[in-house]
Amino acid sequence: MHSLRGPGLENLDISVQPRSRCASRRGRAARQSVDTPVIAPRSRKIPAYALLPDDVLAAIEDQADWILATIGVEFRGDQTALDLFAAAGAVVEGERVRFAPGLARRLCATAPAEFKLHARDPANTVTLGGDNIVLMPGYGSPFVSDLERGRRYSTLEDFQNFVKLAYSSPWLHHSGGTVCEPTDIPVNKRHLDMVLAHLTLSSKPFMGGVTSPSRAQDSIDMARIVFGAAFMKNNAVMQGNINANSPLIYDEAMSGALRVYAAANQCVCVSPAIFAGAMGPLPPAAVAAQTLAEGMVGIALAQLVRPGCPVVFGSFHSTMNLKSGALTFGSPEANLVTMALSQLGRRLGLPVRSGGGQITASNAADGQAMQDSTGAMWSTLLSGAHQVWHAAGWLEGGLVMSYEKFIMDLDHCGAMLTLLQGFGADAETLGREAYLETGPGQNFLSTQHTLRHYATANYQPEIREAGPYETWVEKGSPTLDQRAEPRWKQMLTAYRPPPIDPAILAALQDFVAARKSSMPDEWY
Amino acid sequence: MHSLRGPGLENLDISVQPRSRCASRRGRAARQSVDTPVIAPRSRKIPAYALLPDDVLAAIEDQADWILATIGVEFRGDQTALDLFAAAGAVVEGERVRFAPGLARRLCATAPAEFKLHARDPANTVTLGGDNIVLMPGYGSPFVSDLERGRRYSTLEDFQNFVKLAYSSPWLHHSGGTVCEPTDIPVNKRHLDMVLAHLTLSSKPFMGGVTSPSRAQDSIDMARIVFGAAFMKNNAVMQGNINANSPLIYDEAMSGALRVYAAANQCVCVSPAIFAGAMGPLPPAAVAAQTLAEGMVGIALAQLVRPGCPVVFGSFHSTMNLKSGALTFGSPEANLVTMALSQLGRRLGLPVRSGGGQITASNAADGQAMQDSTGAMWSTLLSGAHQVWHAAGWLEGGLVMSYEKFIMDLDHCGAMLTLLQGFGADAETLGREAYLETGPGQNFLSTQHTLRHYATANYQPEIREAGPYETWVEKGSPTLDQRAEPRWKQMLTAYRPPPIDPAILAALQDFVAARKSSMPDEWY
């Protein structure tokens, strides 16, 4: 499988022989025996951090209501959406929709607080909401980079590689969506190859196409081949990521795709996209309020299309250097907004997709990249967000998916999932017997208690440790990114696809081939 | 000043002309005018994170009581300490001291919950406890490194350089202690040169010598030359860092130095040093409990020597790779202990020195270094710790102070201090006028609201931003550590010492010369 070359469906070499889904995970952590797969935690056991007091949260919610009542949101070119809002009591003037205070929030109330996102392999099904946590790779990069080949436009092969890598890691719960843009495939056909890859090279949950209503429909039709239309009527098996065109606009492509997902009762993730100072005011309070306003309106539309449709309250926001105009990520202001939005989402009673993740503006997988990414990830995960876009691979403000940073980020995903488990204090963890066995000044390494715990005590990252200085110099002083390089290559070599029913595979391939041949290539 | 070469007092070229203490800070942040010094926040305005519920904290406290009642702590070679504990009701058998449950905690009760640590420049005086936060550089490294000269034993010149750098940065509130070991100075005379550097090259709070009672006394005597013995009777102007010899031992050098600081009513920071599995059991709950037990005993001794003596409940703890024995830093287990200890310290009612900071086992200032450091810093600062050792420069498990990492860490100190300010929501920050001025789909950059806020809206790191990819490549693709290199050199070039009374300077120099000539060099 690692010898895949060139773009497109015809290069897919899907193995159909049954094999353990855990095979690719074997031997990942040194402490694991080869027969024990690493299973990542899927929920948090530590409290969500409450950054803001209730009165500040209420003031932000009041501001969101003011925006929706006074300014409103435009739905451009989508009469169906306008009609739905008008029927629900909103004030529609032209394409502008205004909401009396409280109305948008009330329209969101039919969305479930918690729901399952079913995976092709039921063992990979996740829950969104509650104390659950779902990590997924980066989204939307037109470039990829690795240390050997450098920075370049991403191709379908890169896309497939990242799907394989995400599938092979226990620390990502989700295959992602447009992990990177397969720029060698016509724009109007990319979604077919991407969904095919998610559905065949992985068995984790995934996101479908959203760049037009018809591409959203293709994605859903392909999922129906795998999951069955009947099952999907009442169960979410995929997500669509709907970005508002901030400030305060939904264009027809986005609201149209939103309606397609909602009509199919599939999960709609609504993510306003606000860079403070450009698509909204500068202060964090304003960014949070506008995100809430835009998010509630998108979620309300999903509920008007199909009450009870599963949704995620998402966000994508960051800051800029106001001298240079450069986008910045992992800034303290952005991290504060991330934390506030998780609180606002909890008050809305909905699963939250964080605007954080392991994000950075850095051009290299260097100290800046990990300083930005690690801080953003802490703000994301401590805040109680449920789903994390961009948990691995993201570089250069999202322009690049980096193979090495993907691996570096995975190590930290595992660390953070471990941290989210917290710890308790009981007779076994307090270890009184160890003190009775040793005493002041003595070493605990050989106590029965330590021997009983050492195999499972600590999270073991794969590439974090460099060894003693002298050994490290003998090896050529490899930095973390350099140590990551052999790991992703090794993971691709070891990758084996999850089993799939040959008839389903053939049907998917037929669908893609038919859709591709039904339309001319479009490159814009 | 930047041309200082060679070790020792005789090379100090202290400028005595008056100048603004802010001069060296000018122009540090791009948004600041040359006349506006950057003033770092000194307190948190966001809540401390509560990791553990009360019942788990109570179980850990109960375990600490059990350790002190059943196992006890040894004070080796310090009959004075043993007599003080016996008189206070502890059970002393030989050098072992056991405490009835609750006794150690009661003995800590005379320590102040909050106190000032006075600086030579009153503007740099800090408060320990409450909502205050004090960041200081790394401590104790025998090596330094920089990209030009590589890794090498540190010298007094390096020590002086780091004192200058800490003084020159607004993001460190404190000059530190043994920032790096001046290995070119005899062991028994290093404390004299270090304290002289802190007292003359900086005007921020500092830590004195602790490696023997007489060195502690020298440090206090030097401080008295600057602050006056009368002032120091009732005011803390320095700290001594007292490490327990974990597990459960205080040796005479440490408890003796502790008693010297306490007798002088100067701040005693008690820091047990526990690597889980070696100096204590593996589980986080056990490490937290043992740290609490050892810490309370040291604090109790300080209170017995001088009730009301200011103290800090410190810790130094981390994890190991249990296969290789390598120490690890920034691990999830260690970060959890860091967060728990801040809670335990709050319940003890004392200022907390965190075992975190920007710490890492990495051999280079690379992605690992910042992944480890950033995570450890988040756990430290979110948890509500009051004083942070190792906030800048630490590499390789503390073996190395890195000039470049120092700069990289400073940027993140500023980011985290900004984050700790949180944000509010009021008419100005919500910016309704900006929405009325623009509308859906319009850019906020030119609104009056943005123009009013853009100069102060966002934290501006010094070296974090690399610029667009193409520009960055033209510059040679410098990674964050490479961008840090010119910055520390520039800071040393721009450094100007704070003014000092020539008579005080002469008295300090005389003291150091007299003490140095009073004893032969010792190199062990």
UniProtKB/TrEMBL annotation, chains A, B:
<keyword id="KW-0489">Methyltransferase</keyword>
<keyword id="KW-0808">Transferase</keyword>
<dbReference type="GO" id="GO:0032259">
    <property type="term" value="P:methylation"/>
</dbReference>
<comment type="similarity">
    <text>Belongs to the trimethylamine methyltransferase family.</text>
</comment>
<dbReference type="InterPro" id="IPR038601">
    <property type="entry name" value="MttB-like_sf"/>
</dbReference>
<protein>
    <recommendedName>
        <fullName>Methyltransferase</fullName>
        <ecNumber>2.1.1.-</ecNumber>
    </recommendedName>
</protein>
<dbReference type="GO" id="GO:0015948">
    <property type="term" value="P:methanogenesis"/>
</dbReference>
<dbReference type="Pfam" id="PF06253">
    <property type="entry name" value="MTTB"/>
</dbReference>
<dbReference type="InterPro" id="IPR010426">
    <property type="entry name" value="MTTB_MeTrfase"/>
</dbReference>
<dbReference type="GO" id="GO:0008168">
    <property type="term" value="F:methyltransferase activity"/>
</dbReference>
